[in-house]
Structure formats: structure tokens, C-alpha cells
Write a sequence for this structure.
């Protein structure tokens, strides 16, 4: 393949350089540190120590088990949910079909602590049932991890499956039926092969999210060793730990997810069918007991996954004395305290997330355009590097950035730049995915027409391609903004004085046992996140979670 | 959005005005929780209204490592607070200072060459959740918990994850020898952070927790009736905590003034009354102000803090073996 330098070759080169410096370089620092002995020589000692550590081996196995279990559960919830929404009409469908997106938006740290408020050992429900001599299973440990993570992450499966079902060309199914294949067989032979890759791709995303999960693991898994928690603890170890050990742990965490993503790229993505101009079969109106059943099932899932949001607002207005919550007695003191101290972290969150969104979305649009429309050797490399941050859990990314940009000619540690960098790098793969999906749907002919009419390539990009992408760029931006605002695991590692964000403030309150105050902060954060979304969706009619 | 932007710009303006009006600012590194820091700052602000304090909070270990990593270009000015043993391990990074207020603190609670000053004393207690005892007798001391019937009934923080838990385990080893340590390791549920221990007792996860006095007392004062504090009959251990100035601090003068203010009787009394932090100062009447017993009336088993720090690696390894032995 020959490379034309102006303009796309040059831009590809610049993108590659930026990614190399801010993604590959920190990772390479991490890798070298993991192989450095105390005397400065090369050694595999850190890995040997990990392999010999019984608790670490247990954590390794636990992480895999948890990843597989939660991924399975999310598929069991998400796929039928999407199928019901895509194929049937039932009462309240439009409302409940949208609500699962809320779970992506609510910070995990809030979800985790709310579950504890409800079903923790001293939780509302636990105590209510205990009075009737009913003992709930302990929520700490496996039960809580699986339940809470499933209820957060099923959304990814739901959205992915829904998109695939909606882009599925109904004509194919009709063809099968008209050739005399029974309906059920048609579904298995025609619908499943088309939708399955989409489900799998999202299942793998869920697996990586579970493996790297920090907030929920930290809150619920004090007795279940998990890699993400151990890695974080190695970083904050009270008496100082060895950088080689931290790095080795990080490398292992990356390796697990890298294997999974490699499988996705190699095996699954090749099977993805793209359907152009497909028309999904119309949803079937269901009546009587079936409509009731569907509404109840879907409604129940949504209700349970949104319960944390309700509890946060209740707890925010509940009377507290020190760490003790007085349920049923109301008070404004937590809210008042939160409002007094919240402006700084809220402003930080808004500022960092907005910067990261601006940078990330511009970069993502450019990169995905290069990858999809201007294929070259460069862009193939770009394609791989840009998804790399997916393999890095937030904690590991934070450690890598701190280890890299703490010394040397470019010192970013301790400045707001490192927060913005952490957000941008972490959310970049998602932004690229969003932008790419829009680009696939823009036929090359538009561009060719413009260029053949004498408009230069760059101008064509701005005048013809970008406007066609507008809707998905806006939704990518909003999604990136929202997920950045609730980011915790990377920012808690890199933040310093004056850079505290809302999720960090909440984490500190939860850690200190002040659930009332944490809830008040949480309520403030959720409000800050939801207002712009509601405005965007209601006033500007932006289809935030565009499923195509 | 517009109102948010207006709010943001007006706040930014206010910030700029404040910064212009006074140049005095201090970066505080602290392992204390936000409420405790706020209480101290509320009192300090009355004395030094023009001082602006930026906070970085985290575990003592995280902050110490941060101080070490930033030694070439310190970003923090003052660190409040860490166990004496931990401070000893990082003493190259501190600035000696003879604060005017230090006279009221007994010499045993001061660092060598005035490198640090004791702020408060942690006292180890048994925190008991009476509801969860379920027929078991109230434990009286460490020796009770070494008996087989207490297996799995009490929590103890992993000593490599918490400075106070480290002092506790060190004390057990000094007082009861390896046999005592093994007996405790055999029976205890090991938690990953000191918070997990006392929060676990409060929520009923464990009937008993070996933890810090102030943390347990917060639940008593908050009105959770089933929580009781037991001072072990065999004598308990002290873990004094201290505050340091960071060597090469950018705002040294302001930091010194702030250091002195944090040590003042007013601040220390406020911390005792609100958060049950037992001051290192000798001139505060603990029993009268907080309802906690005076230090003199608690039976103590004396420990050498510096020796405790020096034996860190050894003890952690010893403890690791004790726990591994108990699993088999």
C-alpha cells in the first residue's frame, strides 16, 4: 500500500505519534518497571513473587470466575430484554426501554454504596426482614458482586443486542419463512448468526469491565481477593510497596484483558455482518397476559437496577450522627454540608470532563475517519492502538501515567493535565467506536462526489462528512462527558491537592463510613449529570444512545 | 447550562479575588477523614482567617510515598498525621521545627531533633457489637480472644495494610510472644483496611473488632446502642500519631504557622469533643470533655515505637506465617 502524505498520511502520522506518547510509552514504562530488580538489573523476580503468592493466585482465579459469571448473567438479562423491546409492543415500553441507560450514567461508587444501604448487614431491607426473623444472604462477597455488577453492566448487552436486532433486515426472515422454514428454525438459522457476534462483542466488553472494576469490588469484596483491588492496594500500601510488584500486577491485569480483546478482534469481529438499508420487522403488539408479563419482567429489571438512585436521594435527606444513620428521621444537615463543600469538586469534575470530552471527541472523529475511510498501513496500526486503553483498567492506567509523567522533561503529575489525560485515554475507545458506527453508514459516494466537484479533501471532510456525522458526534460527546464525570479508578490514583473530583469525594466519604454525607454528594453529582442529559434529550431531541 | 456557567465564572472570579487578597496558602497532606480535617480547619480559620488550605487526603502510606516521590519538587507543605514508626522510616524528607506550642506535649510524644510532634494518641480497644454476641460472654481482654470458642468471631486488620493494626499486632507479640500471636491469627478474621474492621462490627458483620478507640466511640456517640468499648484487662497499646513539615516545602512560613495552630489547645479540644481524638498534649481533660477515660486510668502495656518500626519487615513476615499456619 502506498501512502499519500497530504493530508491524511500526515494526520495519521500525528495521531500515531500522540497515541504512542500518551498510551504506548506509559505502558512501556510499566512493562520495564515490572522487569527491574531492586539492583536495577533485569529480572522476572516480581512475576515469580506473584506466582508464589497464594492470595494472588486466588485473586487471579476469582477475577476470571467473576468475569465469566457476570458476563453470563448480563447476557441472560440483556438479550431477552432487548428482544422483547425490539419485537413487541407492550404498555410503558418506551419508558422502560430508555431507563436502562440511566444505569450507565450513575457512578458505580454510588450504586455500590446504595446497595449496601439497602441489603448490607445493617441495610434497610436487611433490618426490616430481620425483625420478621428472615435472614438475607450476606451481600458482601460473591452475591453482592454478581448482583450489583449484573445490574450495572447488562445495559451494554441490552444496547448492543437492541442495535443488532433493529438493523436486522426483516426481509431475510420473511424470505426464510416464505421458503417454508418454520418460524423457530428461521430465527435460529437467520436471526441468530447475525445477532450473535454483536452480543459477543458486547459480552467481551462486559468481561473487561468486570475484570477491571474498581469501585464495586472495593466496596463489596473485602473477603474475596480480586486482582483490581489487590493492584490498587499494592499501590497505596501503607508502608510503601515495591514499584516492580505494582507494575507486574498491572501487566498481568493487562494481559488477561488483552487476550480477551485479541479474541474479539480476530474471531468475533470478522463475523459481524453489516446490513445496509435493512428494515427491521415491525414490533408485534402483544395483549392480555403476555403484555402484563413482558411489562412486569422488563419493569422489574429496570426498577431493581434503578433502586440505588432512589436510595441515594432518601439517604441524602436522612438524619445522621457521625457514622450512624437514623432511618425514618429526616434532616437537611448532610445536604447542607455537601453543598458547602461540593462546589470545588463539582467544578473540577465539570472542568476535567469537559476538557477530556473536547479533546477525546475531536481525536476520535479524526482517528475513526482515518481508520475507516483512509485505510493504510498507518491506520491499521492506529486501529489496534486506539482500543488498547480498553485493556487497561483505570487503576493500572493511573499507575502507568503517574510512573511515567512524574519525572523527566514532561511533568504532568500534580496538574489538572494528568486528570484530563487519564479521562481522555480511558474513554477514547468508546468515543472511537461511537464515531466509527456513524461513519460506516456514510457511503463513500458522498465524499467522492464532493471531491470530483473540485472541493479539496480537507474541506470535503468538514463540509460533507462531518455534517453527516453530527448526530452521533453529539451523542458520543455527551456519553464521554457523562462517563468521565463518574470516572473514579484512574483519577483516584493520579489526583493531588485541589484536583479532587466528585467521585473521589464520594469514595472518601464512603471509605470513612459517612454514608449519609456520601449520599448527599451522590445526589448532587447525579443531578449535575442528569440535567444536561435531560436537556439534550428533551429540548434538542438528541438520540443519546443512538442504537445504530 | 447557562446558570452553571455563570456560577462557574463567578466562583472563579471570587477565587481569583481571594488569591489576590492574600498570598498565604498551605498544601495539607492528611490521612485524617474529611470531617476531622474540617473541624480542625474551622478552628484554625478563626485564628488565621487569611490562610487558604488545600487538602490532599489518602492513606498514610500513599502520602508518605508521594512525599518521597516528590522530594525533588515538593508539592505538599505539611503532613498530618502518621504513626511514629512510619514517620521514622521517612525522616529524611522532613524539616525539623521547634514549634512554640510544643512545650505542652510530653517529650515522649515528640520526634527526634524536633522532626515531628505528636498530635494524638490512638488507644487499641475491643469494639463489641452486643447484639451479635448471641449468648457469648463479653470479652475482657486479649487472652479471651485466644480461646477456641472465639474462632471467626472477631476481626483484625491486616497489619501490613494499616499502621495502627501493625502496632496492635506488634504489641500482642511483645506481650504474649509467638504463641499468643499464633492463637490470635488462628481465630481472627483478617480484614483489608482499618475501616473494614470497625464498620464491619458496626454493621454486625463481626461481633468483635480489634480497633482504634476513636473509631469505635463515634458509633457509640452516634447513638448505636449495641456498640460497647472494652479496654483489655491485660493492658492495651498506644499508637501515637504525629505531624511533620515537609522538607523544601514551598510555603514554609505559612506551613509553620499552620503547624503551630493545629497543635493548639483549641484545635486539639475540638478534635477530642467532636471526633474523640485523644490529644498528645498533657493539658487537656479528656474524661471531662469527651466521656472517654483519662489515659492514666487505662491499663497500658508500654511499647517502643521506634523499635516497632525497625522490626517492620520481620513482624509482617512472622504474621504472614502465623496466618498461613492457621489456614492449614
Amino acid at each position: 500500500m502506498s501512502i499519500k502524505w497530504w493530508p491524511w498520511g500526515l494526520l495519521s502520522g500525528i495521531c500515531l505519534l500522540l497515541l504512542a506518547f500518551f498510551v504506548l510509552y506509559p505502558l512501556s514504562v510499566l512493562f520495564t518497571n515490572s522487569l527491574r530488580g531492586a539492583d536495577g538489573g533485569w529480572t522476572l523476580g516480581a512475576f515469580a513473587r506473584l506466582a508464589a503468592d497464594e492470595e494472588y493466585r486466588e485473586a487471579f482465579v476469582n477475577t476470571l470466575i467473576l468475569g465469566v459469571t457476570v458476563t453470563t448473567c448480563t447476557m441472560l438479562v440483556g438479550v431477552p430484554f432487548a428482544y422483547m423491546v425490539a419485537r413487541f409492543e407492550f404498555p410503558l415500553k418506551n419508558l422502560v426501554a430508555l431507563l436502562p441507560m440511566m444505569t450507565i450514567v450513575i457512578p458505580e461508587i454510588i450504586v455500590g454504596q446504595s446497595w449496601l444501604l439497602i441489603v448490607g448487614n445493617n441495610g434497610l431491607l436487611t433490618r426490616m426482614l430481620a425483625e420478621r426473623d428472615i435472614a438475607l444472604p450476606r451481600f458482601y462477597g460473591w452475591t453482592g458482586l454478581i448482583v450489583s455488577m449484573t445490574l450495572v453492566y447488562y445495559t451494554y448487552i441490552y444496547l448492543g443486542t437492541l442495535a443488532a436486532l433493529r438493523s436486522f433486515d426483516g426481509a431475510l426472515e420473511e424470505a426464510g419463512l416464505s421458503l417454508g422454514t418454520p418460524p423457530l428454525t428461521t430465527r435460529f438459522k437467520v436471526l441468530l448468526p447475525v445477532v450473535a457476534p454483536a452480543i459477543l462483542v458486547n459480552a467481551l466488553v462486559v468481561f473487561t469491565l468486570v475484570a477491571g472494576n474498581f469501585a464495586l469490588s472495593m466496596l463489596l469484596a473485602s473477603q474475596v481477593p480480586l486482582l483490581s483491588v489487590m493492584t490498587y492496594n499494592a499501590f497505596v500500601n501503607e508502608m510503601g510497596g515495591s514499584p516492580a510488584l505494582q507494575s507486574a500486577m498491572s501487566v498481568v491485569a493487562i494481559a488477561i484483558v488483552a487476550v480477551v480483546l485479541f479474541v474479539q478482534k480476530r474471531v468475533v469481529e470478522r463475523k459481524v455482518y453489516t446490513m445496509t438499508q435493512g428494515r427491521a420487522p415491525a414490533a408485534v403488539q402483544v395483549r392480555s397476559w403476555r403484555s402484563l408479563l413482558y411489562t412486569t419482567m422488563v419493569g422489574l429489571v429496570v426498577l431493581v437496577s434503578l433502586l440505588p438512585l432512589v436510595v441515594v436521594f432518601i439517604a441524602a435527606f436522612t438524619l445522621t450522627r457521625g457514622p450512624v444513620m437514623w432511618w425514618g428521621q429526616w434532616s437537611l444537615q448532610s445536604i447542607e454540608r455537601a453543598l458547602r463543600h461540593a462546589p470545588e469538586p463539582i467544578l473540577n469534575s465539570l472542568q476535567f470532563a469537559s476538557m477530556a470530552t473536547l479533546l477525546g471527541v475531536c481525536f476520535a472523529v479524526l482517528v475513526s475517519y482515518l481508520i475507516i475511510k483512509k485505510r493504510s498501513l498507518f491506520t491499521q496500526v492506529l486501529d489496534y492502538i486506539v482500543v488498547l486503553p480498553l485493556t487497561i483498567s483505570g487503576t493500572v492506567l493511573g499507575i502507568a501515567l503517574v510512573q511515567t509523567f512524574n519525572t523527566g522533561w514532561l511533568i504532568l503529575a500534580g496538574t489538572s493535565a494528568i486528570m484530563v489525560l487519564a479521562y481522555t485515554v480511558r474513554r477514547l475507545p468508546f468515543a472511537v467506536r461511537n464515531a466509527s458506527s456513524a461513519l460506516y453508514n456514510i457511503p463513500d459516494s458522498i465524499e467522492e462526489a464532493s471531491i470530483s466537484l473540485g472541493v479539496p479533501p480537507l474541506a470535503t471532510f468538514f463540509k460533507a462528512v462531518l455534517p453527516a456525522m453530527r448526530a452521533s458526534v453529539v451523542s458520543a460527546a455527551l456519553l464521554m462527558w457523562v462517563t468521565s464525570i463518574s470516572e473514579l479508578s484512574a483519577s483516584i490514583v493520579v489526583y493531588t491537592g485541589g484536583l479532587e473530583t466528585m467521585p473521589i469525594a464520594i469514595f472518601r466519604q464512603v471509605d470513612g463510613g459517612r454514608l449519609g454525607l456520601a449520599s448527599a454528594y451522590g445526589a448532587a453529582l447525579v443531578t449535575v449529570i442528569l440535567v444536561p442529559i435531560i436537556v439534550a434529550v428533551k429540548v434538542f431531541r438528541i438520540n443519546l444512545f443512538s442504537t445504530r | 447550562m447557562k446558570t452553571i456557567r455563570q456560577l462557574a465564572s463567578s466562583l472563579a472570579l471570587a477565587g481569583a479575588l481571594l488569591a489576590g487578597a492574600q498570598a498565604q496558602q498551605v498544601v495539607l497532606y492528611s490521612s485524617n477523614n474529611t470531617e476531622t480535617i474540617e473541624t480542625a480547619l474551622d478552628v484554625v480559620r478563626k485564628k488565621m482567617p487569611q490562610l487558604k488550605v488545600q487538602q490532599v487526603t489518602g492513606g498514610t502510606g500513599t502520602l508518605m510515598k508521594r512525599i518521597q516521590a516528590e522530594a525533588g519538587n515538593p508539592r505538599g507543605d505539611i503532613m498530618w498525621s502518621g504513626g511514629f514508626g512510619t514517620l521514622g522510616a521517612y525522616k529524611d524528607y522532613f524539616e525539623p521545627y521547634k514549634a512554640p506550642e510544643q512545650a505542652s506535649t510530653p517529650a515522649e510524644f515528640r520526634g527526634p531533633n524536633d522532626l515531628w510532634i505528636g498530635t494524638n494518641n490512638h488507644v487499641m480497644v475491643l469494639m463489641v457489637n452486643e447484639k451479635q454476641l448471641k449468648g457469648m460472654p463479653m470479652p475482657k481482654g486479649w487472652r479471651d480472644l485466644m480461646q477456641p470458642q472465639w474462632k471467626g468471631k472477631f476481626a483484625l486488620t491486616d497489619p501490613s495494610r494499616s499502621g495502627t493494626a501493625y502496632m496492635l499486632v506488634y504489641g500482642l507479640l511483645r506481650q504474649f510472644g509467638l504463641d499468643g500471636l499464633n492463637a490470635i491469627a488462628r481465630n481472627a478474621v483478617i480484614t483489608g483496611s482499618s475501616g473494614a474492621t470497625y464498620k464491619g462490627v458496626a454493621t454486625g458483620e463481626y461481633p468483635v473488632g480489634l480497633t482504634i478507640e476513636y473509631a469505635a466511640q463515634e458509633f457509640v456517640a452516634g447513638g448505636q446502642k449495641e456498640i460497647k468499648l472494652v479496654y483489655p484487662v491485660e493492658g492495651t497499646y498506644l499508637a501515637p500519631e504525629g505531624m511533620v513539615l515537609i522538607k523544601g516545602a514551598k510555603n514554609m512560613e505559612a506551613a509553620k504557622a499552620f503547624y503551630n495552630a493545629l497543635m493548639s489547645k483549641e484545635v486539639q479540644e475540638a478534635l477530642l469533643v467532636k471526633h474523640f481524638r485523644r490529644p498528645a498534649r498533657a493539658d487537656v481533660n479528656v474524661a471531662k470533655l469527651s466521656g472517654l477515660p483519662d489515659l492514666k486510668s487505662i491499663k497500658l502495656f508500654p511499647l517502643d515505637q521506634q523499635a516497632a518500626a525497625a522490626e517492620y519487615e520481620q513482624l509482617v513476615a512472622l504474621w504472614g506465617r502465623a496466618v498461613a499456619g492457621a489456614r492449614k
